[in-house]
UniProtKB/TrEMBL annotation:
Top-level taxon in the UniProt lineage: Bacteria
GO molecular function, one term: hydrolase activity, hydrolyzing O-glycosyl compounds
Record-linked InterPro entries: Glyco_hydro_43 (IPR006710), Glyco_hydro_beta-prop_sf (IPR023296), Glycosyl_Hydrlase_43_Enz (IPR052176)
Name under which the protein is recorded: Beta-xylosidase
Acetylation in keyword set: no
Family annotation (PROSITE patterns): PROKAR_LIPOPROTEIN
Entry keyword set: Carbohydrate metabolism, Glycosidase, Hydrolase, Polysaccharide degradation, Signal, Xylan degradation
Length: 716
């Protein structure tokens, strides 16, 4: 259900205790915009029951027609205030970046009685205050607060004149909230005459705390504190964001019925938001793992609302029927992989290894206004259980809820590009993936996992953090590989990883680390004969015939070279291109040996493509040449199972047996396909059986949800 109202708005993460609270705040309204491109600078709504799990209304489409209310054609940075008399006040930046870049001179004021229908006015600073501010080039991120002393609504925002820095100003709105009735005055000037934007005020224990962004000199969040609303702010000279990335658009709000405050900010270079919490507004800790959104917001605000208001918004704008469940018992269920089919009124719960289906308590939690029964443990061992869902409008519907044990994905959370080894030292399998879930593959660290049986996996923690452990790169931690070697009678582990489109090596005495980077990249050049592509996706292979080790890499090309005995260097003159000639090679090389044949695997298409898949070739040596079988597809999507983007694999042999498995990533299931290109960095790791025919050809793998089941650890 999509509705477009010409007068409506709200923003992402800014809620202030300077706002009059709802009579019975039981939910949250989140207003935001989505980006800088055409049509993205508009107001969107999302709601939450707990302040952590947000679901978009109106299919994440605008709830307000931006070009109908703005002077420049777009609106950004929405902020909503609940007024003293019960009305709602919304202010926005009037700016359309595709046409105007970052130059603007006005704001948009809106007023509503119900958060649905709004009156609006444009407020153009040079028209109102030509003498004082006729030359402004930026009027950004307005917010509203009620000034109890003056009995008026005060609007504060940043402005820039000429070469002067951005300054946060304030002025009072007129009685009908259609314009400003006073000349803007400086509210806060940086003591070092630097720019400040994105002001956000929260009152706590009689003090006014002004959070702001230090624009152009650190790009972080600082705070100034005063005893009075309209001046006297003293800056505390420390950054409050809990990331080294550039941030803006801070929003601070207090959780309902709690002493905790949430400080959120837009990690705008990464297309992400970070959430932190505090009780004293001085010390903040990251809580990103508690937050869930089915949209990608930009600078916005959060407003506490009543259950009645939340239901009204759901009725007006519609909530995706696939989104009424917000949480489940994650100790027992892979929550992000549940399959909800509202058309068929069915719900499938994938449970973890060892769960007793005769007494499973799903622990389902719903969005605002939804209720479900029965509660508590139920017997799912004999088939589906009937649950009754009560919806916000009072209607009821029966759902058939079933549960079964699934082993794919094998890791909880978003991971990709899995590499797997068996360690003779530990007697376990060790899995080394890319840490995924970061916009545009912007992760900066690697983790590792171990298992005695390929089914039950233990998180062994962080092994390489680019910001702390690597001196030559600090971004794009991708696609590792690893190998176990005996050096002077002791086991050593060589871990090859991509960082900043280069390939490095770290070394450890244990497969779970700690790993030490060698201090320089192993690959930071493009091989002779290669054009385009990237220096990424390493693979390392020990040849059981020659006893030598070989190294492979490349995106757009496949490079191969023998490694030196030290495992951290090679002779560049021996680098050879082995790029398959059928035009299907993209990346993700994997090499293994079986029954006299060398197998080369690679991924075809883009990792954001639903048709990302794996192909293979044979060779008579680790350095090729490659022979491509007529039918060389290894694994591909299965739309009937909602499995897409199956690629970038590794292969593992069970020690001592001709038993093989393929480890690969896929789009997160079942939501990946709906995520568009974002599915390419919201991936999950799976394992399925790899089989061969009598001639050694790979039998196409059927990607499964069930995965594999090994009942006992591997014999050593």
């Amino acid at each position: 259900m999509k509705k477009l109202f010409s007068l409506l708005a709200i923003t992402l993460f800014v809620l202030t205790s300077c706002s009059r609270p709802a009579a019975n705040p039981e939910a949250y309204l989140f207003a935001y915009f989505t980006g800088n491109g055409p049509g993205e600078e508009a107001v969107h709504y999302a709601i939450s029951k707990d302040g952590f799990t947000y679901r978009a209304l109106n299919d994440n489409q605008p709830v307000i027609s931006a070009d109908s209310i703005s002077k420049q054609g777009g609106v950004r940075d929405p902020h909503i205030l609940r007024g003293e008399e019960g009305a709602f006040y919304m202010v926005l930046t009037d700016l359309y970046v595709p046409n105007d870049g970052w130059i603007n001179q006005g704001m948009v004021f809106l007023k509503s009685d119900d958060l649905v229908h709004w009156t609006h006015h444009t407020v153009y600073i040079p028209d109102l205050f030509a003498e004082q501010y006729g030359d402004v080039s930026r009027v950004w991120a307005p917010q509203t607060v009620y000034d109890e002393h003056e009995g008026k609504y005060m609007v504060y925002f940043s402005m820039k004149q000429g070469e002067d820095p951005d300054i946060i100003y304030y002025a009072y709105a007129n009685d009908d909230f259609s314009s400003l009735e006073t000349v803007p005055k400086p509210l806060f000037l940086h003591p070092e005459n630097k720019s400040c934007i994105d002001g956000d005020i929260v009152k706590k224990e009689g003090k006014y705390h002004l959070f702001f962004k230090t624009e152009g000199h650190g790009n972080g969040i600082k705070k100034a504190v005063s005893d009075r609303l309209t001046g006297g702010y003293v800056m505390e000279d420390k950054y409050l964001q809990q990331t080294t990335e550039a941030v803006e658009g801070s929003g601070i709000f207090k959780l309902n019925d709690s002493d905790k405050y949430i400080l959120m900010y837009d990690v705008y270079m990464k297309g992400a938001y970070q959430f932190t919490e505090s009780t004293d507004l001085e010390n903040f800790s990251v809580i990103d793992d508690q937050v869930s959104m089915n949209f990608h917001p930009r600078h916005g605000s959060v407003l506490p609302i009543s259950l009645e208001e939340a239901r009204r918004l759901e009725t007006e704008f519609g909530l995706d029927p696939q989104d009424w469940i917000t949480h489940a018992n994650t100790e027992l269920i892979y929550f992000k992989n549940i399959l909800l089919d509202s058309e068929k009124a069915s719900l499938y719960l994938p449970v973890k290894e060892g769960v007793d289906l005769t007494q499973l308590d799903p622990g389902l939690e719903m969005m605002v206004g939804y209720e479900i029964s029965p509660s508590g443990a139920q017997d799912f061992s004999n088939g589906a259980v009937t649950y009754t869902l009560t919806q916000p409008d009072g209607s009821v519907r029966d759902y058939q809820v079933s549960a079964a044990m699934d082993h794919n994905p094998v890791l909880k959370g978003y991971y990709a590009d899995p590499e797997i080894i068996y360690s003779n030292k530990t007697g376990k399998f060790h899995l080394y993936p890319t840490s995924d879930g970061f916009d545009s593959w912007s992760g900066t660290f690697f983790k590792t996992f171990s298992s005695p049986d390929l089914v039950n996996w233990q998180d062994d923690g962080l092994i390489v953090d680019l910001h702390k452990d690597v001196s030559w790169a600090d971004r794009n931690a991708w696609a590792p590989c690893a190998i176990e070697k005996k050096v002077d009678g002791e086991y050593k582990y060589f871990y090859y990883f991509t960082a900043a489109q280069k390939i490095g090596v770290a070394v450890a005495d244990d497969p779970a680390g700690p790993f030490t980077d060698i201090g320089r990249p192993l690959v930071d050049f493009k091989p002779s004969g290669a054009s385009g592509g990237q220096e990424i996706d390493p693979d390392v292979f020990h040849d059981p015939v020659s006893g030598k080790d070989f190294f492979y890499w490349g995106n757009g090309y496949l490079a191969a070279v023998p490694l030196n005995d030290d495992m951290v260097s090679f002779d560049r003159s021996k680098v050879k291109l082995l790029t398959p000639e059928d035009g299907t090679f993209r990346e993700g090389t994997e090499v293994f040996y079986r029954n006299g044949k060398y197998y080369f695997m690679w991924s075809e298409n883009d990792t954001r493509d639903a048709d990302y898949r794996v192909r293979y070739a044979f060779a008579d040596s680790p350095m090729g040449p490659l022979t491509i079988p007529e039918d060389n597809l290894v694994i591909a999507k299965d739309p009937a199972k909602e499995i897409y983007g199956t690629g970038h694999n590794s292969v593992i042999q069970v020690p001592g047996k001709d038993e093989w498995y393929i480890v690969y990533h896929r789009f997160t299931r079942p939501h990946g396909l709906k995520m568009g290109s974002a599915a390419g960095f919201h991936r999950e790791v799976c394992i399925d059986k790899l089989s061969f025919d009598a001639d050694g050809n790979i039998i196409p793998v059927q990607a499964t949800v069930e995965g594999i089941a090994l009942s006992a650890p591997i014999d050593r």
